[in-house]
Design brief:
The chain is α+β, with helices and mostly antiparallel strands and 582 residues long. It is 49% helix and 21% strand.
Amino acid sequence: MAETHAEDVFVDALQNIALGVTEVVGFEVAAISVAREDRTLEMVAVAGSDEARHQLLGHRTPMDEIELELATSEEWGALRFVPQERMSLDIETLGWVPDMAAPDDPEMWHPLDLLVAPIYDDAGVLRGLLSVDLPVDRRRPGPAKREELRRYAEQTRRAVLSAFERAELAEQVRLADAARMIVREVSSELSMDRIIEVSQPALTSAFNAFGMWIQTFDEDGEGSGSVYASNGAEIVMPDDLREIARISAHIQWKNQDVSVLNDVIPPLGVMTPEQEQQITEFMRAIDVTSMLFVPLGAGPECLGNLVLTRRGGRLDWSPIEKQAALDIGHDLGRALLNARTFERERRLIDELRELNGYKSRLIATIAHELKNPLTSILGHVEILESVPELDGTVRSSISSMERGAVRMQRLIDDLLVLAQVGDPHVEFTPQPVDVTAVVHDVLDLLRVTLERKELKVVVEAPQQPVLAMGEEQGLDRVCANLISNAAKYTPEGGTITVSLEAKRRIVELKVSDTGLGISEEDQASLFQEFFRSTNPTAVAQPGTGLGLTIVQRIVERHRGRITFDSTLGAGTTFTVTLPLAR
């Protein structure tokens, strides 16, 4: 719609110029035609005669035929006069001939006389043609009238070129706005279907196109890739045409150029006649009369192509449209590269998630297989301990066996938990959990340990429940591991502080101690599986090296975050954030 408005304004300006010619220079009819991409001159403004306007508006004359006529014309300064006796154009090519008798006097105006002022721009390119017909006095112009016509033709030339510049500037602004909108909309899209869905309305509207599609190439640059069409339309493109388009797009991207394909303008220039015939037949099959072929890329890499289509009589695409389309090709190319990178990362994440799930299932299977015989071992150890006649050496050995078996059992239990919380296939069903109650339950279970070491425990929590979205069993294990670690690594008489706070969107749990602290060297590996501290005092404490790994996995499973702050010899604070339940 914006393009239609700009074209209307341009045509109105030319119509006013033509009307001024008829009012000033003494001719009853004035017409202005403009050069089109298919090398025709299209009549867009006619003044002075309703009959002439009816027959001439929209009429196109091949530019080559006009140039032949101008080559034989009489030059009157900026004017070109082709008398009837030199005219080679037929009436159909001219489009309209005044209804008047041919005069016998050679000084009189003949209905087939042609008087025009070619409109060249500063680069010498023919941009249009001013034509006048039917002098009021019905005489061929004499020297005085020619000079008057020449002066007004030059003024008309400047006015017409100004109208062209204004129209081109308006089109540049319109297409630049469309490009900015497209960039803004598609830059955050991470799938080709969404890129097409978002960009299609803006592109087809801005370029006055019927439809569009995007062909993407395989990541190695060799395969012809996939075709994504607008409006859900299905574009069934044969493999050989996809390959032609792929090769052409690489050439176009290297040359930083676009191409127009229609019955008038030859195709891309990189195809054999047979391939050109394939393209033509394909266009007929999808009922398209003109296509603008735009390469898509980022940096040196060509990633695909964009095709904009038109139906009906309009075959040309303006130079401004071509340049804007090439700029958009860069923007869509970057969006396509982002989408491709995201898709690659998504596949990698899926593969890693599947691998992690396999590892978790493998760990769970091995742990289960170990658990059964270990249970049997512990059972037989218990039986042996009840035998009264065993001497001290044997009892010592049995006790060592029991400690080793218990340690193995603890490791197996942790492995089973680690496998469960690390398996992405295990269903996660969060619900509101009162973390305050969980903390008090854990402290109650650890009461004997805390009292034996005479540890002071401070709980800082609001009176009302602090609700987090999660699984109670998992949050219980998080609290138990963090508080038991604080108790384990805090010397007798130390202090453990557990604080809870409900913030705007999160629940914050902090567990602080006045214990051993963690060295900077150990901090980098703290959440790694089976990691044990290098601190000899910490190593002396029993553990599997999986507790903090399990805590981290559970917190991440809850879409939360765990951090810590520690000073060697002064203590450690772990901070867990969880989604707040509303």
